[in-house]
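Possible race condition, two jobs.
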Amino acid sequence: MTMQNLYIHVGTHKTATTWLQHYLAKNSDHLNDLGFYYPNSGRVTQAQHRLGQAIFNRKSPNDKLDGIPVWERFKREIEQVRYENIVISSEEFEWVQDPSLIKQFLPNVTIRPIIYLRRQDDYIESLYGQQIRDYHPRLKQTIAEYLETSKLAFLDYQRLLKQWQAAGEQMHVRVFDKKFMKDGDIGADFLNVLGIGSAEGFEAPSGPVIDQKTNLHMEALEFMRQCNTLPMTAAQHMQLTNHVIRLDKAAAKARGKTRMRLLDFQTRLQIMERYRAMNSAISAAHPSATGLKNLFEDIADDAKVFEQAKTINTFEVLLKANSLVKLG
């Protein structure tokens, strides 16, 4: 059999990874018709998360992947199928410190990492919002407090790319920005990286999991942040989140489109200046990503800044939350 290509979608986080994973799973039959296989081994919510988790959950960083059940199942699965191209996706791979372990475990496979990068100020705001909506960690901090206490190591894209460059024969670096995606669409862009020139016949995913990743309007997000100061079970938090998402959709129809941000323009400038040299180096190494000197488009002072509450009236928040979820 011809040596297989293993396309590993590494992420990063907050680059429509959940949407893309459900897109690949929903269209797996169509992918098969085009010579691509989306494996079942290690799948959780349509992504191969258990493969990445199994690597960084090893007892020792020197342990090889041999003998790890999920990786052994994966190896058997791709050996048994008659597909030259294998595609797996999980943002858990972003946390793998030594991806060359995969190459050692699969010596007869050509590894082709695919990594989407998001402009750092956008990434921070998006991840912050997601961590408010998620039960773990149920963020209560304002974004200013979050910046003060977070090391932001995940924004070191150069380290991430260096690690995967050493593990793969050909790395594909893309920028998560509609202006630089094929047809302005993440699905079409990802398919294009695979060498599939048209998204015709591919269906977009939908459902509760996709809704959970939808960005909330600032007022709804602030309400969720304040509710995170209240004790809740995971089930109560999920119920509240679903109610807020539904109400936020209804409110959006009434209010229309409004562009607001959590970070003010000067703070965003400072963040981007901190990573300017690194972004320029990445752009020089991967000119096809955008062709821009600093990799990303310059930020613009084009949005109002949402003011988060510095103090919270716990009883008032409890009354509002209790109208949506029975808390006491």
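Job #2 (started ~2 s after job #1):
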Amino acid sequence: MNRSSRRGFTLVELLVVIGIIGLLIALLMPAVQAAREHARQIKCASNMRNLALGTVVFVQRKEKYPGYAATIVLNDGVAANAETVGWLPQLFEYIDQGKAMTNLKAGIAVAGVKKYKQNFDFVTCPSDPTDYSAALWNEAAAGSGGCGAVTPATPPTTKYPLSYAVNCGQIDAAADPRDDARFALFHDQRAAVAQKVTVSNDDIGDGLSQTMIMTENIDLGEWTLPTSASTDAATKVEPHQGVVFYGTWDNANSKWIDVALTVPLNDLTNLIAPMDCNSDGYIDNLDYPHARASSYHQEGVNIAYADGRVEFFYINNADTATYAVYRAKFTPNAGDP
């Protein structure tokens, strides 16, 4: 009588199968991660495009670009109650956030916090860490870019995180006129600034499609401003709201004179740990070296232009031409190449 015999897997065969499966997973994981990051990059670009289009509409209505900081008079008309804001609240009415603007102008507060201040997910890049403050704290050197001797043991809370930085051009001068209309789109419009500079599309000789509205910066902190920004024109607001560029314009020879960068573009090893130095509930220790284009995307950042277009800008710090191209995107009418 014949019997059919059954033969199972041997241990060696089982280990070989497991090894093959593990190898396939190892080969696939980078591709899966890359696909996920590409999706996050697309979502980031979509966020930026909506903000850029809101800026385009603002410029069409107001015939000027928003300030990177500005003073908004409330409904009561009392100057002392006016709210000093960054660039985002100025766009509320143009990015489908009319309710937030209504709350802002009405001066509504709940438990001492202005109601218009919210954590908006459309102003943060999906590639940025979810635990924003802790991530920066862990990656930054202890006390780096901090508050002098103040080095808190735990990371501060980033209540209103911001990933997108507007074009602030050159670092503002200490005295008026603080800005130069040739070198940026967003200027200081706070009430405390005596000589305000504004830019309209008519001033953009280099072309709307070539002039940057905003880009990404992982070191921004929050879209709200330090408390001192409402009364002190010297408060460093640009690093909180935008990006700046380094270099001196040589009028005689129509060229830029380069300077060494403390923190290169897209540098992820020199991050700053945002701190609340004055214990007033607002991050206020950000400085100019970190006001540069940077992201957690691979090899570059998203950039939005004055015509509403968004593109990915590849960064190669080893190529000196990269910074020259980046700087030229800031200047609306400087005769850059």
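The chain has a mean pLDDT of 84.
Logs attached separately.
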